[in-house]
User: Which sequence fits this backbone?
């Protein structure tokens, strides 16, 4: 990593980008699965990343029987491409659970919003921009502008938005140090929570919704306990396994949709108490728990 006493300019960002390499295949891992979605789901391309449009097309899967009588839900994954179970949890929902809800909900799912970052196992896009701080109208991240336009084109108020993430050891060992260098600002190192937790919206906390997600996931994997100060990643725990961010002010993915129920899921794939397949199942359980709660609440 290049240490800098001033924020990175274009030269430093280009040097960072040149150090990245392809480590896995978006086509093999994501696109091929989208090409074989179960009946009742439709696939539409909503954009392509200008870095390599042929390699990085962007797709939205939706229920084919879209009804104005049904509420609409959005499932997103891969905002941070390195957070693997978010991508594969969204795909698992499409493959194994979407049909259970299709007669009651309009479903839209963007399983891999940042495919370059997925392939290079990165938090940022190639311009060293964090997409999950860039969901606003004049966003410099095309991953964000493309998704926001696609959601606006649905022309439906959202009942639920669930954004699937992970918190990994590399948050401390790689990405926070890179951010410190990029911004020339000291970054605190925090304890990575061992287990699943959610990030709700400070202005729209939805405690019953968050509790339903946590309860569903508890059947699959462990919930992260608070640290000695009653916090997770530096934030006060609002209820078991739940913290809050001001998602709109921070320009997070869940902040732009205005959904009645919203949450960001977080799992810890580096825990000795879990494994990759369980993390994916935890994401799937989280989505099902959230949708079941929304339906039971009468939408």
Assistant:
């Amino acid at each position: 990593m290049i240490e800098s006493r001033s924020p990175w300019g274009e030269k430093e960002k280009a040097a960072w980008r040149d150090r990245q390499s392809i480590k896995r295949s978006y086509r093999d891992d994501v696109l091929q699965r989208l090409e074989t979605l179960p009946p009742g789901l439709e696939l539409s391309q909503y954009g392509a990343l200008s870095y390599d449009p042929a390699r990085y097309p962007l797709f939205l899967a939706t229920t084919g029987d879209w009804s104005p009588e049904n509420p609409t839900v959005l499932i997103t994954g891969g905002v941070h491409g390195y957070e693997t179970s978010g991508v594969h949890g969204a795909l698992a929902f499409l493959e194994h659970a979407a049909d259970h809800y299709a007669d009651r909900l309009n479903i839209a799912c963007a399983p891999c919003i940042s495919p370059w970052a997925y392939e290079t196992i990165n938090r940022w896009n190639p311009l060293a921009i964090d997409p999950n701080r860039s969901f606003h109208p004049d966003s410099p991240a095309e991953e964000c502008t493309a998704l926001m336009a696609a959601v606006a084109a649905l022309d439906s108020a959202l009942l639920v938005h669930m954004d699937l993430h992970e918190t990994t050891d590399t948050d401390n060992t790689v990405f926070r140090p890179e951010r410190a260098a990029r911004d020339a600002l000291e970054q605190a190192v925090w304890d990575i929570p061992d287990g699943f937790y959610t990030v709700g919206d400070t202005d729209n906390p939805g405690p019953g919704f968050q509790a339903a997600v946590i309860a569903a996931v508890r059947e699959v994997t462990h919930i992260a306990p608070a640290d000695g100060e009653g916090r997770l990643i530096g934030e006060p725990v609002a209820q078991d396994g739940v913290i809050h961010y001001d998602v709109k002010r921070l320009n997070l993915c869940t902040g732009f949709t205005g959904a009645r129920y919203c949450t960001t899921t977080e799992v810890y794939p580096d825990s000795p108490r879990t494994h990759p397949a369980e993390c994916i199942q935890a994401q799937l359980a989280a989505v099902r728990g959230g949708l079941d709660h929304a339906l039971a609440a009468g939408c």
Q: What stands out?
A: The chain is about 35% helix and 20% strand. Residues 229 and 236 are 8 Å apart (CA to CA). The domain at 10-296 is CATH 3.40.630.10 (Aminopeptidase).
